[in-house]
Amino acid sequence: MTTPQPDGLRESLADLADVVEDADLYDRAVRRSGRIARREAAIGTVAALLVIGALASGLWRLPAGDRADEPRSVSGPVARASASPAPSAAVYAYQPAPTHSSGPGTTTQVLPRRHRSQPRIDEAPAKPRSRSLTDLPGHVFYRERGGKPDIVRLRPGDGRTHRVLADAPSPVGISPDGNRIAYVADGTLLIGGVSGGEPEPVAEGVGTAEQAPTWSPGGDRLLVDADQPAVVEVDTGTITPLPGDLGAGRHFRWSGDGSRLVYATESCGLEVARAEATEGTAVPVVGDPLPVDNPDGLAACRAGSVDATGRRVAVPLSTAGGEATPETADAVVDTTTGDLMALPVTGRVLGAVFDPEGNLLVRTLRQDTTTLSLIAPDNTLLVQAVEPAAVRDLELLAYTG
């Protein structure tokens, strides 16, 4: 039995039927099916990558007897990869990052693991305490580009430059006090004053192929290449080869307190050794051949200057498939974790050097202007000033605070 509908309700339903359009359920179903398929494909890809990562991790942990050529493992914390999308090859924006202690009362920010090639930029960097070049203490040293370069000293106090060595016959080393310069000519290690005068011969049989003359913090010794890495006593000329496995290293640098040596390996990794040790400890990530631990193929074929404790080293950084290793350091690596340090500056890094006290001088280029930024060990931006035009075309070499 059918219940009769009121006339008003019947008329309303009829009106509604007049405005309803046909729904294309087939097209809607196809679109929904496509979305589901794409989501399932993405989930499947992620799952496959996780399985591959797990297998790689398991192979790394096989006993030494199962893999005769397994690389030596390294210790120390390794930061996890950032979950953010990989940045482009252009300037990276600063991302919030974990901190590591650099000593009593100090912390240092590091970039997430995927932020690699240029570890430098904060889009809203800290304000410097001073923007005047005259407030930059010490001296800044530069070299000309190309073979047999002139070595030039900048005095920030008055902005004047002075050539301290013409046509340098080899890579040079500037003493910690900024008063002496060491170099090699025809196998002889020479030391001269930056204010002029004849250089004095110190030792024979010295080269610079894998070791530029590098001063100890006290200025009484030099690291040199004498068929293998060695230490020369400045007063006596006595040459003492570095002991044990250190003999296989290259481009050694002392920490500012003299307690550690940081150096590069033949495979473009980095190692750290105590001053009295016969072997070093590998810096994680950099130079590691396993993509699971070094996904960007980071490498450092030479060590640059080192901070006061040996915790941080400025290096010319290269990546797998990237450009050739630059001549000047353009990145700062934490030697305990292998992370790249986030620097409170903007622009492209053209050079980075530590002074003996652990302050970092960074040279950057932005909008056709080069800038010098002095950063304290706790990452405080002390001075940031426009660089004089007279040194614009030179390469940053050293800084003595």
Order of helices and strands: HHEEEEEEEEEEEEEEEEEEEEEEEE
Major sheet strand order: 5-4-3-24
The counted number of beta strands is 24
CATH architect. name: 6 Propeller
List keywords for this structure.
401 residues; alpha+beta; Neuraminidase; four-stranded antiparallel sheet; 2 helices; disordered N terminus
What does this 3D model show about the protein?
It is a single chain. The protein is of the alpha+beta class. The chain has one domain: 6 Propeller (Neuraminidase), CATH 2.120.10. 12% of the residues lie in helices and 29% in strands. The chain contains two helices and 24 strands. It has helices at 7-19, 25-60; strands at 99-103, 106-109, 139-143, 151-155, 160-165, 173-174, 180-185, 188-193, 200-204, 214-215, 221-225, 229-233, 239-241, 250-254, 260-264, 270-274, 281-282, 312-315, 331-334, 348-354, 360-366, 369-375, 381-386, 395-400. It has a four-stranded antiparallel sheet with strand order 5-4-3-24, with no helix packed on it. It has a four-stranded antiparallel sheet with strand order 6-7-8-9, with no helix packed on it. β11 and β12 form a beta hairpin. The termini are far apart.
